[in-house]
Amino acid sequence: MTTQKNGNGIDLYTWATPNGRKVSIMLEELKLQYSVLPIDITKGEQYADEFLMISPNNKIPVIVDHENETHLMESGAILMYLANKTGKLMSPIGENYWKEMEWLMLQMGSIGPMLGQTHHFVKFNPGKSPYAEERYRKENIRIYGVLEKRLKGRDYLCENYSIVDIATWPWISRYEFQDMNLTDYPRLKDWYLRIAERPAVIKGYAVPDPLPVPMPN
Length: 217
Ligand SMILES: N[C@@H](CCC(=O)N[C@@H](CS)C(=O)NCC(=O)O)C(=O)O
Fold this sequence. Notes:
With 217 residues, this protein is of the alpha+beta class. The protein has eight helices and four strands, in the order βαβαββαααααα. It has a four-stranded mixed β-sheet with strand order 2-1-3-4, with helices on one face.
């Protein structure tokens, strides 16, 4: 991994956020060669004209695969692309595949957007909107409950460790931002720790900043 644009491999435009980490964890799991190009979203770099050409929605993550010059935004699409490119971490079309799509869509359409609002209203702007704080706190608790139920009798969210776990785990790794205690969700906590100890997850979490994986008590 370098911080230069990569002639043969994949360029990852990212920042130290859950959506960014999904892709760095996936690239580490697949042992693909990639370069990291940090986009500092706290300084507005996502609005630069050059970035807009590959990220029409002005958000990270984005990849450029120089094998075929494919560029992609949207973390769910990127995970599916990389799984399809390598034949790993996503099932072939069939029953397991559709369950993976179901839970991936839930992550993309609900878990990420809702927990992201908790970060905004509960963690970073408390007191600005009691209505929003209550709404997203409740939704956060409800979503943790859904995941806790889903993990009854299973080690991973679908049949095997897959892009679904890789998409969901970085959002749960922000349990402190969300003021959530994983001890109240024993199956979710076990799942979290099972994934947290994977070498690829530890490496991917530390992109682009060398931060350790959060470990609950
Ligand atoms: N649905 C998109 C969401 C991407 C997203 O919200 N990225 C955030 C960081 S996690 C971002 O770039 N925010 C900058 C901004 O909103 O200006 C995905 O999953 O890739």
